[in-house]
# Entry
Amino acid sequence: MKVLVAVKRVVDYNVKVRVKADNSGVDLANVKMSMNPFCEIAVEEAVRLKEKGVATEIVVVSVGPSTAQEQLRTALALGADRAILVESAEDLTSLAVAKLLKAVVDKEQPQLVILGKQAIDSDNNQTGQMLAALSGYGQGTFASKVEISGDSVAVTREIDGGAQTVSLKLPAIVTTDLRLNEPRYASLPNIMKAKKKPLETLTPDALGVSTASTNKTLKVEAPAARSAGIKVKSVAELVEKLKNEAKVI
Amino acid sequence: MTILVIAEHDNKVLAPATLNTVAAAAKIGGDIHVLVAGQGAGAVAEAAAQVAGVSKVLVADNAAYAHQLPENVAPLVAELGNGYSHILAAATSNGKNILPRVAAALDVDQISEIISVESADTFKRPIYAGNAIATVQSNAAVKVITVRATGFDPVAATGGSAAIEAVGAAHDAGISSFVGEELAKSDRPELTAAKIVVSGGRGMQNGDNFKHLYALADKLGAAVGASRAAVDAGFVPNDMQVGQTGKIVAPQLYIAVGISGAIQHLAGMKDSKVIVAINKDEEAPIFQVADYGLVADLFEAIPELEKLV
# Structure
């Protein structure tokens, strides 16, 4: 079966971001960018399905600027067969991305679509669910285990109190949680080979999708800084401070 | 303006996060209706009717809603929600699972995990793991929003007397089914609602050593959490994880033990009122956010702390 994986180019998770002085956003000039960690897990899961003989083709798609080609090449080096870039320089909302992905799903007709559960920049946790709604497919969000059998997929999900397993009819949408798998690294020969794999570029216009948004970001600020704390010398002093100064115990 | 709040529940008990969500609705202003979608959830509806500020409780009782499958619940919420100005749900795993599906069905953008209400159409929410706060305005006809519980003080669970009304609509998409669940058992307070949280990290060295934290937590009436490192190392189950990818907590007192304080972890706890860090590495980033820091070996400090509190 064909598996579609969506990946996003985001600021590297180790970077401590800074808010721009004019409060228009976060300063991303000259900052290291990477594939969103949850998307890496999504690519890994697709590659493992292919290694098990369940998946026959892996198509990786990204919606973003032309530089997102780097992340698509990374996914190709990890084992994806071909890539699609839906190029848009705008900062799109989750709904707009979901609509673009829906157009790609209609075109490619995959049996399974895997996304990360959230992107670490916008922290929205929406796109997979929205894509599922637009496609009319079942959704297995926050997946820690994915098992395909026949025309259905059993997804074990991380929920607040523990774990839950649901069964979904294929085609279906799965979003990855951290513990689904441990992504592999791309080897140098595979990085070289990935340069020759096909990468198709589309535009929202060509897909006939409007990316208009009902949301507007008015400003972005740095969070309130915590006032500097103190170091105590002993456990006794700590307990005394918590009881008499902070009054929390 | 009328606001629809989706009740968080397990068919038996109304979850506390619902009270924080109603508090956010009260800040927006207007009539507040609560939707209880489930099966045999009469007690939940009764509890929701008691919540201060709620004027009506809608009950959709159907086998299709028993396990809150989003394929079935989202069409119900979208159908009912069309007549409302706002649809709110707590940013729990359920709320996050269902609400974006509702937003897409209504063709509007969602605003996730708001921490404050600026006006009826403008909200603040953290982005980049809490390292920036965005102010977002929505001009959608129906504003679909998830609420970060720790950003709002809960309304009183009693004092209200809302009318309960049954909703007939049954949506069974027939594309998903519940197979089973495994819930972690704990007698301690729930992590996201606890007044005190004691968390352990990689410095705990193994799962067995968490018993020191459990002993301290029991003395304090606290919940026990963990960093991603401790969860990934298999010391404790993953529903104990505090952080960007785990739970967001904001207790009165957060005690971080053997936790370095990575960005990912801080995103889950830095709104705690008082933060205590116990770590033997005095350069650990956790000390930059800690109100009280103690540079010490946790295996000596924790038993001593347990004795003194």
